[in-house]
Every structure is written in C-alpha cells, then in structure tokens.
Amino acid sequence: FQMRSTCGNCNGTGQMIQNPCTGCRGTGLVKKKRQIKVSIPAGVEDGMSLRVSGEGEPGPNGTPSGDLYCYIREAKHPFFERHDNHLVCRVLLTFTQAALGTELEVPTLNGKAKVKVPSGTPSGQILKLRGKGLPDVQGYGHGDQLIQVTVEVPKKLTKKQQELLREYAETEEVNVSPERKTWLKKLKDHLERLQG
Length: 196
Hints:
Number of helices: 3
Radius of gyration: 35 Å
Shape: rod-shaped
Helix content: 10-25%
Distance between the termini: 130 Å
Mean pLDDT: 81
Strand content: 15-25%
Strand order of the largest sheet: 3-4-8-7
Low-confidence stretches: none
Number of strands: 8
Order of helices and strands: EEEEHEEEEHH
C-alpha cells in the first residue's frame, strides 16, 4: 500500500532552502514584540473583548495576518462602584445633616455636582443623579449615579453637645441616659413641689 504525507523538508511548498538564516530558520518569519494603540470605546465592561483586524499572527505563505483580540480587565475605582452602566458612591452625613437636610457636593465622572439631601433622610437612603453614570457601549444613553447615604454617629461629644442632645431626647420622651431625669420624671417632681 502507499501513504502520502507532506514533505518534512519543504513542508509542501515544493521548494527547499539550502542555507536557511539563523533568525527565522527558513520560515521567513521572526518573532518580535511591538506595541500598538487600541481604541477602546466608552462604556466597555470587564470581560469584553475588542477585535483589532490584521494585528494577529501572520498567515502562511504570504496570506493575510489574523486578528488580535484584546480582553478588557476593569480596575477598581477608590470611590465609585459599577453596576451595569450605573455608578454607586457612598457619602457620610452627620446626624444633623440627615435630620435637617443639606446640599452636598459630590464628585462625578465630569467634575462635581450638587445634590439635595431632604430633611429626615435615613441611613442607607439612595439619591439619584440622572445621566451621570457610564455611557452605554452601544450608544443608548448613560446610566445614573446613585449616592448611598450613611449617617455617621459621633463617637465623642462635648458636654454642650451632650446637653443639647439630652434636651432633644426629652422632647421625644425618650430616656437616653440615667445621668439626667426623663421629661416625665421632671414633670412629676415639678407637680409634687407645687402641691407641697
């Protein structure tokens, strides 16, 4: 029987190089590293791939080069967290800012923006800046920037601050500390003095 196989010397080209160069060993190709610029569209996500035509491995026998595929790895941001095209950031509010309301200046991708915090805002509340998120990679608008509020409880208070907060607690009829009498206890003592 007969077997046919590709010639190991010419690799089926029909030509043999008698004195191959030491660089390419007769293949006609030499490996080199080079840098190219890749245009990355706005809004790409982690794991997406970009195809760069003609920047891959060269084809055999003078055929066109293949394509280069670049896979996107998204670095973490110190302030923003990404959820699809929405950006989430967290801000701290004092008790008085949350109770009375305030206006905050928050960073966005395009500078700073002002956001109103309504009075009585609880911890965990999410405020929205429409259209301040990431652009859609397909060109369908922008996501939103979501601002999550965390109410910060002070760990150290001055004596004056403690007095003011206790006075406030008494108006709520809440006993916050045994150091001061509750509002009801003070009222009872006052009434007893009037009767006696």
